[in-house]
Write a structure and sequence with these properties.
Pol/histidinol_Pase-like, 8 helices, Histidinol-phosphatase, TIM Barrel, histidine biosynthesis, histidinol-phosphatase activity, alpha/beta, two-stranded antiparallel ribbon
Length: 277
């Protein structure tokens, strides 16, 4: 029995049309004790989506329909599985106040939220760093080195943890080693452990948790969880809660990587954001 705390939905433009019902029925068949739907939250209205397909997040006008569908699913399946309403929130440097405003607006609906970095700024231009290996290679070229991309990404993750959204604070940090998605094509020959440990210290100090994300294990150019085992071990030394997430964008992706992640990892259930629920 385990909990999948990072699942996408048909509201995701780069996902699949698989229905909420098929996700939930599959979760039940897998024996999951709970599931959080964490669709990509709408991007700030003044932010230009840098993904080539302009499909990074759900549309703002779909928020109400998204939460309404989750209410329906909670009622329909309340006797069979726990379902939580969530969002994956992008931390975008320079757009913190826009993100804060979105969190204020959706907070009454949220049981859970993940704070993730997908967009990196290089020379005043944003890139969707995990879109594909071509975009990532362009980022390396524009930055001057692979190490510079990692440093940029890890610095952004650290800023996301340090930033305060006051009472509207997401409690989990998403896939903190997403920069390794294409590591088979862009092998790492430098040490970034200092930056990772600084992030873990900040996560611990803020009482946040980590997304133990199985998606990297099925990515052909990664084949490793986000984050890898050594980071998980360091997180556990600091008693940072670990929340397994499949990061599924299809029904087939539910539970992906779970049988490969480290068996000694002490996984837990996400804390409720609104404790009165």
């Amino acid at each position: 029995m385990y909990y999948d705390g990072h699942v996408h939905t048909p509201f995701c433009p780069h996902g699949s049309p698989d229905t909420f019902e098929t996700y939930i029925e599959r979760a039940i068949s897998l024996g999951l004790k709970g599931i959080t739907f964490t669709e990509h939250a709408p991007l700030p209205k003044t932010f230009h989506d840098p993904a080539p397909d302009k499909d990074s997040a759900m549309a703002y006008q779909d928020l109400n329909a998204y939460f309404q569908k989750l209410h329906e699913m909670k009622n329909k399946y309340k006797e069979r599985i726990e379902i939580r309403s969530g969002l994956e929130i992008d931390f975008i440097e320079g757009y913190e106040e826009d993100t804060h405003q979105l969190l204020r607006e959706v907070w009454p609906e949220l049981d859970d939220a993940i704070l993730s970095v997908h967009f990196l700024k290089i020379d005043e231009t944003f890139y969707c760093m995990d879109f594909d290996e071509i975009v990532f290679g362009g980022m390396v070229e524009r930055s001057g080195s692979l190490a510079a991309v990692y440093q940029n990404y890890l610095a952004a993750v650290k800023k996301s943890v340090d930033h305060s959204f006051n009472q509207f604070q997401p409690l989990r940090v998403g896939h903190i080693t997403l920069a390794k998605k294409f590591q088979k094509l862009f092998p790492v020959d430098f040490d970034y452990s200092k930056e990772i440990l600084q992030i873990l210290e900040a996560v611990s100090n803020r009482g946040m948790s980590l997304d133990y994300n199985g998606a990297g294990l099925v990515k052909p150019f990664c084949q490793e969880a986000y984050p890898p085992l050594w980071v998980i071990n360091e997180a556990q030394k600091r008693k940072i809660p670990l929340i397994y997430g499949s990061d599924a964008h299809t029904v087939k992706g539910l539970g992906q990587g779970f049988d490969t992640i480290n068996a000694s990892a002490k996984l837990t259930t996400p804390l409720l954001l609104n404790r009165t629920k």
